[in-house]
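Apologies for my clumsy wording, but can you show me some protein sequence, whichever is easiest, together with the matching structure tokens, please?
=====
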Amino acid sequence: ATLENRSTTILLRGDVKAPGPEVKPGWPLVFGETGEVGNRPRTALAKWLTAPTNPLTARVWVNRIWQWHFGTGLVKTSGDFGVQGTPPSHPELLDFLAAELMENSWSTKHIHRLILQSATYRQSCRFSTENDSLDPENLTYWRREPRRLESEAIRDSMLSAAGLLSLSKGGPSDPLDTESLRRSLYQKQRRDNFPDQQILFDTANGISSCARRRVSTNSLQPLWLMNSPLSQKSAEALANRSGSVEAAFTLALGRSPDSGEKKLLQKQADQHGLASACLAILNSSEFLYIP
């Protein structure tokens, strides 16, 4: 039988050699009335998921985008919109973003632009004792909370600042026992042997679904950032690429150092070499966090 007319049967006792009654594509009854499946069940499913009468898909979509930019979604349990999940903190905003997504041809770029240009996203990180006393969990977004880069982004950012990152695309994964300079996306993933920076900086375990990564702080993280071969190699390359403290600072952090920062880093460079000052820059909170 061809793929188009191949029948699907219930396997008796789960035995592939014991086909039982034939079954047709259909919808789980819990979804209610979902329309005809027809001869193209996958197409029917896609159309149902993206139908204007089914806004759940759009809500989940925009909630993940919000979580990416703010660390926490409007629905904190971004992987569970069911009865065991948490209700949205701002339901009207969630509905607005979902409607915007559907009305703009499901353009993720449009939602990114809306969020990044909003006053909420551009809030200062400055702390306010008065606001903290009223809203200690920052549920009203009265301040911007810095968000640490993911483990893969930390490695990629170090290589990028040093001018070492390879932007080649596609192909097989790079074995862990090689000094790969490609993006962390192309590092081979083994559940029993993750790269060091992924283990230390809260990567997903590769076994269960991870809707939101946790963020921890421990003593091994700065030890790796200071002493790992990757950190040392990146600092040396950044020093060779920049040639000065001010240029290295600008390359790594995207701004010029103020007089105090320049003075301290120059003192470090004079005493221990420019690579040592570059290592300090790569270990700074401003480099590791999105302010």
